[in-house]
Specification:
By secondary structure, the protein is mainly alpha-helical. 53% of the residues lie in helices and 10% in strands. A 3-stranded antiparallel sheet has the order 1-3-2. α1 packs across α2, α5 packs across α6 and α7 runs antiparallel to α8. It is elongated.
Length: 212
């Protein structure tokens, strides 16, 4: 599952209505271009594709000041919101995916009720424990990786990965249950987007589709 759909839908949803450059600017401000496939071409392609799929509504607005075709602003639809929340829930529960998907899910976790976020993270821990159990059916961590030759290092890596991810997830759950962060319907949320015309210190430079 690609993180780009979750990232783009979430960014548009935060703005209410946003043109492609705003979405790209937000994702670069978050550093998503470094830890995911949220590169300019992928972002603009995702916007156009999801508009065709009915997840986003495209509005043509006034032409840009430098000329060219009308700029397009995107707005998330009810169908898009359903898709966004489904992707978000999957990102928080699935353990067998690329790190970019979990990173995107954590970035939008406060869009869910606090109790649901905790419940989803607990599901993730259960999945990690089951995965670790399947590995240790063939590999005994206490005996070290050498029991399977150098191939045992793969099993050793998997076990350490499962343990570290479970420990990190437990810590996040403790922080959330302890009252950290502002979740949906709890008050003013954390604002992680740039204000209009605010310079982005992490911008990667112009892209041909920035004007559309």
């Amino acid at each position: 599952m690609s993180a780009i759909r979750l990232l783009v839908l979430g960014a548009v949803r935060q703005h209410g209505r946003a043109h492609g450059y705003q979405v790209r600017n937000d994702l670069e401000f978050w550093g998503a271009h470094e830890w995911s496939n949220a590169k300019p071409g992928s972002i603009y392609h995702a916007l156009k594709q999801m508009a065709k799929q009915g997840l986003l509504l495209a509005h043509e607005v006034a032409p840009s000041t430098v000329g060219g075709p009308p700029r397009v602003e995107y707005e998330i639809t009810d169908k898009g919101t359903e898709e966004y929340l489904a992707l978000l829930r999957e990102a928080l529960t699935s353990y067998d995916q690329k790190m970019e998907m979990l990173s995107a899910g954590i970035g939008f976790i406060v869009d869910l009720p606090r109790a649901e976020a905790v419940a989803l993270l607990k599901q993730r821990i259960t999945g990690l424990e089951q995965w670790r159990g399947s590995v240790t059916e063939y590999y005994t961590p206490e005996e070290g990786p050498g029991q399977l030759g150098h191939i045992g290092e793969i099993m050793n890596m998997w076990v350490h990965s499962a343990d570290s991810e479970a420990a990190w997830t437990h810590g996040l759950i403790e922080r959330i249950e302890g009252g950290a962060y502002t979740f949906v319907d709890e008050g003013e949320p954390f604002v992680g987007i740039l204000a209009q015309d605010e310079p982005n210190p992490f911008a990667t430079g112009p892209h041909p589709d920035d004007l559309h």
